[in-house]
Amino acid sequence: MDDHGSPTAAAATPAPVAAPRARDPRRAEFELNKLTRRLQRLTGEAIADYAMIEAGDRVMVCLSGGKDSYGLLDVLLALQRRAPVAFELVAVNLDQKQPGFPADVLPRYLAERGVAFRIAEQDTYSVVKRLIPEGATMCSLCSRLRRGVLYRVAAELGATKIALGHHRDDLMATFFLNLFFGGKLKTMPPKLVSDDGRHVVIRPLAYVRERDLARYAEAKQFPLIPCTLCGAQENLQRRQVALMLREWERKFPGRVDSIFNAMRKVEPTHLLDRTLQDFAAVRATGRPEPEGDLAFDVDPLLEAAADAATLPGEAGISIPLASGAPGVRANAPRR
Fold first, then answer.
1. Would you state the pLDDT for residue 28?
2. Which of 47, 104, 114, 171 is the most buried (most CB within 10 A)?
3. Could you give the residue ranges of the DSSP H alpha helices within 221-269?
């Protein structure tokens, strides 16, 4: 301050602010190449593991305008160029007549990429808005209506496979939704016959994380189109489950990977489903059974993993249900 109580020139002059460092374009290119290789590798592994695409297939890629379906199409185009078998790709978008939908975006993008495509038009938006009360979940009806149209288009195109953009996070969220609210151990499989029995539905991104697809979409600058139906609903249980999984991954790194691996290593004999195991026929065999019951033993690998996941000072495992929600504690059993 000067003698009159006013700021001095030195004090009035703000300290210089360092300019943000420009991102090294070579580094950005390196990161994108690494991400691209990972997406293509994981997608290729899933396709091979589940025999999703075969020689001569015509694969209908369902393109919604979201990051996942854009990523799916882009990766499949890359894999198509070097695949050991020849197959066709045709992109299909369903224009649901949502208000403000930019109908020119996808045709222009696909034409520029040289991709064969079909735009199917059907006003399912009005049907959903008319039948579903405000605030209620729209996904179920919307998906049923979309599915019917896409099945019809697949038949018209002679498509042998219908490819959807569901990723690893979708499969895991569906598993927990069925577990919490449906009382079933069930998810969306990587490959399945459609409910009308006429088509084979595949999910080539089954091994891919959503965060990688988000990074890929940003780097590739896909012309994303937001959804004003289910995409605009904030309180969906699916969104809450996604928050729960992210919280688990933050607090317990590796837990989500373990859950996903468990979905690929099911032991039906060690569950309670009588349609998978004839419990009435279970008899002592008099010979060692590698997969027999170990009720009186402690699985050392399981115990070590559980102990490693327990935070210091805790007697059990805290399971947060959602971001900010109280957890449920599973106390360690007595031995």
1. 85
2. 47
3. 237-251, 255-263
